[in-house]
Amino acid sequence: LLLGCELTASTKSYTFQVDEEDDSDHILALSVVCLTDGAKDECNVVEVVGRNHENQEIAVPVANLKLSCQPLLSLDNFKLQPPVTFRLAAGSGPVHLAGWHRIMHREDASFEDDDLSEEDEEELPPIMPAKK
């Protein structure tokens, strides 16, 4: 699925979240951040706000765009774990963010190692010593 949003002076943030009851794994990948028509020649700083491994909120700047020197930034599918918020920390935009959202459905995890019989295991040949 494709993702797109625009941050402006009046809409400074966009939150991408998924249903917590969903039993799928979600990956959000950010591809491009760019200034769009009507942007002023000012610094536009875009932050990603998420949670770290201790569930504390953290904000990380991912783009600093200016019309006269860097109007576009390719992020090479920067992967994020939802929920995540994109925030225009400085500038008035408009800044367009584009990327994709992948949903990976979990398979039944009832498979156990001890269900394997010895007949199913592939036997590897013994390692032979090198000849002199």
Produce the secondary structure layout.
Layout: E1 2-7, E2 13-16, E3 24-35, E4 44-51, E5 57-65, E6 72-80, E7 84-90, E8 95-105
Antiparallel strand pairs: 1-8, 2-7, 3-6, 3-8, 4-5, 4-7
- Overall tally of domains: 1
**Shape estimate:** elongated
Within the CATH hierarchy, at the fold level, what is the topology? Jelly Rolls
| Residue fraction in strands | over 45%
Q: Helical residue percent?
A: under 10%
CATH architecture annotation name: Sandwich
State the fourth-level CATH superfamily. Nucleoplasmin core domain
Please give the order of strands in the largest beta sheet. 1-8-3-6
**Number of DSSP strands?**
8
- Mean residue pLDDT: 82
Explain what the structure shows:
With 132 residues, the chain is mostly beta strands. It has a single domain, classed as Nucleoplasmin core domain (Jelly Rolls, Sandwich), CATH 2.60.120. The strands form 2 sheets. It has a 4-stranded antiparallel β-sheet with strand order 1-8-3-6, with no helix packed on it. A 4-stranded antiparallel β-sheet has the order 2-7-4-5, with no helix packed on it. A hairpin with a 5-residue loop joins strand 4 and strand 5. It is elongated and about 75 Å long. 14% of the residues are buried. About 8% of the residues have low confidence.
Key attributes of the depicted protein:
132 residues; mainly beta; Jelly Rolls; 4-stranded antiparallel sheet; 8 strands
